[in-house]
# Entry
Amino acid sequence: MGGDQTKDPIISKGCRTVLPGMRVAEDQVGIVFKNGDIHLRPPGAYRSIALNPWKKYQAVIPIERVAGVEFDPLKKAALVNRKIAQLRLGQSYRQIVLQPQQIGVFEDQVMTLLATRGTYVYASETELRGVIDLNCMSPVIVERETEDTATVNAVGTTRVDQHGRTVPAHQGHGTTILATKRFLPSGYTTTVAGITVARPEKGFVVLHKDSNNRISMTEGICIASGKEDFVRRTKTEARSLTMDDLEVEFGDLNHYAKSTPMLELKSKDNIDALCRAQIKWKQFRPDIWVANRGAFTDPFDMLEEKCANMMRDWLLSVSHVEALQEKSHGFTKVEYQWTKELNDTGLEYGVQVLGIEITILRFPHIDKQDEQVALQLAETNLLVEMSRQNARKEQESSKLNQATHIRMQEDRNREAEAEERQQEVQRRKDMAEAETTTKKLQMDTKVTEARTELALAQEKRDKEVAIAKATAEAEAERLRAVGKRDAAQLAAEGDIAATKEKNNAQLQFLREQAALLRENPGLLELLKIQNDLLKTEALAAAAKLNPNVVLLTGQEGLEARRMNKGHAPQVPGAAILTTTDRQ
# Structure
């Protein structure tokens, strides 16, 4: 889009305008009708002149960018300014935005153009015929059949077969084939301005024809117009058809399987037979199939008659015994040969037979005889089985009685063993109680003896202590007397040197006694007793020589001093002597 910038220059938004003009912002377009022409203005500021005012026929509209929707500025401007609508200007430049999945169809006087993703601006000479959205096309639905095995529910019903005989309505293994219809989307199509676009689903292909009516196929999106077209089929069966009754047909590459009806045939030995086969196929060239199918509705319709003829020919060439032998081998040879012959026929139509399987082969009369024999055999087997069951029950009953007797005998043995163990436990308990009583008496005796021995030892110790104490006291008295005597002699003689020597000897003796006491702490008490005894003996001896010596201590000594006119008795020192020294 653009405008005539030579005659109407763009002025910035901040400039001065002589006369009222027009401002076009971003994402807007200005429309001006000037001198009979339409001018589109890009973003900017525009002014008008006094000689050519265009204020009455102007409009500023926002640019719309909706995907797939044509934006016509004049239509939008007519909604904004009614004076522009009164001019009936027709069409000018238009714009459209296309997404990746959209295709725009444009036409001018010469050609038709297709445009894909992008933003397009086109003039009045070009028309937008339509937009094709690949995600919003019309589906083409096809009908397919699937087979399910169902149980036969009809009981007692009959029918007349092809030979005029009355036979049960359902002959087989108690099952029948039920066909279920399914509707599948084969592809999608849409038509715009004579241009048809087709997009196949996975497993399908597009079939298109050229101007010479030659059919080809493609797996991608295909566009046809003019002399080219797609292969079409009728939606409904009718004699008079129009183009609206036709739809695009897609080639089918999927695998399918379908069973033939139950065929009533005869074997070589004129035995009635029921036979059914299942054919599996696919179209490897749908274009060939469409070109050569004629009145066939599907490949199975073309292969079914051929398959029925092969089954009829084969059964007429073998007896029922040979047919059953072939059935026991899985029909390997027959199915291989039939598949090969069907493929020779299918190749002419672009169809490949993947395999054929004989699903049912029965001889009803033989089966009925076999059923009677089997019923008699089953009855015989039932009687034999019942006799075996009775014998087994009697044997099991005998085993059960024997096992019960054995269990009862074992229970009695276990009760006897338990009673014997209980008696043994009671005997051991009594022995343990007797032994406990004996040990208790022995312990009591030992306790009494120990207490007696302890009392005797205590008494003996007391006696020994008393004797030792008396001995110590006597020895102390003797030592005191000796000390007092020696003290009196030394005082009388006045021998200072002898006293010193004696004192040194006593000092040495005391040292030895101190060392002895350190080695024997228990002798301290004995020595004290001996020292008291010596003091007593010394005082006794002194009392014999000096009547003023008082043997009393404490309060009694004070009374003695008072009676002695205050003179304290003179007690000579006494040396501590050991028994060895006395001896």
Q: What stands out?
A: The chain is about 45% helix and 25% strand.
